[in-house]
Design brief:
This protein is α/β, with parallel strands linked by helices. It contains 7 helices and 9 strands. The strands form 2 sheets. A 7-stranded mixed sheet has the order 1-3-2-4-5-8-9, with helices on both faces. It has a two-stranded antiparallel ribbon with strand order 6-7. Helix 6 links the parallel strand 8 and strand 9.
């Protein structure tokens, strides 16, 4: 495996009785979530922010990974955090939001979840386009990373998107459809109306199908990677408030 990109290192911080699991997105790494993770640490919470398999080094390391690897990474990080915390909240961006929802369907004891521009559906035409590229022998296409409005705050995502791993994410999103009603904990949902990676309708879909209460926040000044964008302080403030409320 190649050297980890500077700033993409995982984070593990001991804190008080509340723990927050923080999950990055597809082809991204913990750099995109560090401002939010730092806000949780500043609030006195324990934090686990894993580097998901194949991420944060070079795109070649991601080609043979899949949802099975990333969900296993998220599960192990959750178990580490739950072992030292009385209550756990999970927060995720994009695919990290997909993983957050997946964890919530498996762990009803989770106190609350925070999703930022989560990927919750796979449009059939997009999936078919990717499948056609793979059938033609392509392994990667141009990347979707660093969709950030603030030019001074880039994301250190891969410049390419690996195709087979993307198909595994699509398959997982489809599997999640029937389980969304199992998500009964409170959901704080951040959505960027100007998202060039995940359609804002994915957030609407999640809000309509979960079984628990939903609080929605619009990130009007940010693109997809809102945690690094102009609304990053809004996201940090509202998320810390949410954690305090659901773990009180």
């Amino acid at each position: 495996m190649a050297q980890i990109i500077e700033g993409a290192e995982p984070m593990s911080v001991d804190g008080g009785p509340v723990g927050v699991l923080v999950l990055h997105g597809f082809t991204g790494n913990p750099q995109s979530m560090r401002p939010l993770a730092d806000a949780f640490v500043a609030a006195g919470h324990g934090v686990e922010m894993p580097l998901l398999s194949g991420h944060g080094t070079r795109v070649e390391d991601m080609l043979d990974t899949s949802w099975a690897d990333w969900s296993a990474d998220a599960e192990r990080a959750y178990e580490r955090l739950a072992a030292r915390s009385d209550k756990v909240v999970v927060a995720g961006l994009s695919m990290g939001g997909s993983l957050t929802c997946w964890l919530a369907t498996h762990h009803p004891e989770i106190a609350g979840i925070i999703c930022i521009n989560p990927a919750t559906r796979a449009a059939p035409e997009v999936r078919e386009f990717i499948e056609a590229l793979v059938a033609d022998g392509a392994a990667v296409m141009d990347g979707l990373g660093s969709d950030v409005a603030d030019p001074g705050s880039p994301e250190s995502a891969y410049p390419e998107t690996p195709l087979r791993p993307l198909l595994s994410l699509f398959a997982a999103a489809n599997e999640l459809q029937g389980d969304m009603a199992k998500i009964t904990c409170p959901l704080l949902l951040f959505t960027s109306p100007q998202d060039h990676v995940v359609p804002p309708g994915d957030s609407d879909h999640l809000a309509e199908h979960v079984g628990g209460p939903v609080e929605r926040v619009s990130c009007d000044r940010s693109f997809h990677v809102a945690t690094l964008d102009y609304d990053r302080e809004l996201i940090a403030r509202r998320s810390v408030e949410f954690v305090a409320t659901v773990t009180a």
